[in-house]
Amino acid sequence: MLKARELQAQGMTQVEIAAAIGKCERTIRNYLKNEPRKRKKTERPSRLDPYRAFIKDIIQENPSYNGVKIFERIQKMGFTGHISIVKEYITELRKSENRKAVIRFETEPGHQAQVDWVLLGKQCIDGEIRKLYAFTMVMGYSRMPFVCFTTKMDSATLLESHIRAFTWFGGIPDEILYDNMKTAWVYDGEKWQTNRQLSLFAYYYRFIPKRCRIHRPQTKGKVERFNKYLRDSFFCDYDGRGLSIPSLNEDVQHWIGKIQDNRLVQFNKSRRERFNDEKKYLHEVSSVPFDVRNTLPVIVNRESCITYQTNKYSVPPVYIGKTMTVKPFIDGRRIEVFDQDGKPVRIIICEKKGARQIIIFPEDREQILLHWKNGLKKDFSFRTSKKKHSASHTFVAVRNPAFYEQFVCGGAR
Q1: Range of the domain at 79
Q2: In this structure, are 275 and 300 located in the same domain?
Q3: What is the mean pLDDT of residues 253-260?
Q4: Does any domain span residue 40?
Q5: Both 161 and 257 in a single domain?
Q6: How many CB atoms lie within 10 A of CB 346?
Q7: Which of 82, 279, 314, 335 has the fewest Cβ atoms nearer than 10 Å?
């Protein structure tokens, strides 16, 4: 009967076909009006089947991951097949992932913001050559940006910049997207984990940290495009000039105020118009900011001073021999000192790093002097009593000439 279909394809009528193959016309008609049955293919299990989900997770995470390394990993897991079927499957997955990568996606209002750092090289900042960075956060729906220039990219600076951005936006999105910056993500050998400080910070402000896939800049393309715009349209006028961080941050806010009303071609609306729609979907910002400062333990020496960046600062003598905590402010010019119970003691304006200054505060001077005199009396009575030295005895007499000179000659601030 297959001959009947061949003759039909040649243009013969059903009557002619019936005569040619010796069948009645009705049989030919019934046969030709039904589609030919497709032969069922027998599906044979593959040795790769138990490992397909594992390989798919790796390629979704990093499409350029080395295929030989994947083969070696699944061999250790028990795979006994050939590398060719592994490479074939990886190629299929990469094609699928690459198609997804070029699809432009839009986020709902208030759903996502994207964060990044812009490296601006070495610049003259307050008369000193230092590296300059710009923290940028861009709202996914409105493309509304926030920019903050800094000289550091550590965890405390990153989180402090977040707080400034939240305050500026007047709200917090559902999630924030990051690349693989170390202050946001940690790889434990098996998978990526949120940095502990960022995790606590995100829990406090009620947003979800998200990580963009490596070698996949399209996933945070909104902030990437803005970073180029920031370089070409704003920072080009400042590059190579003497800069000040506060004035630079003030200038960039004025610049953002101007570009807010520029019309976005793809939406035929401005950033300001779209942000007015987006703002009502943002979460409220807590009135009590999260303390993002780093914590450093310091020991109070017998001269009633703590040491920070080679400089010594006095504290009340009741803390001699005890461990206190120092939290540097983000501006790098101040520190806050806490006692062993976490109670704040004072805020100190720091001397320049490496200056090796001894600062005795007026409120500590009288107490330290009294403590010092009492210490001398104890030391004198101890020496004249001809008793053996006690391990529990504390010598509080000052034997540091530099400290004595600073104390007596009016080194207080």
Answers
A1: 49-101
A2: no
A3: 94
A4: no
A5: yes
A6: 15
A7: 82
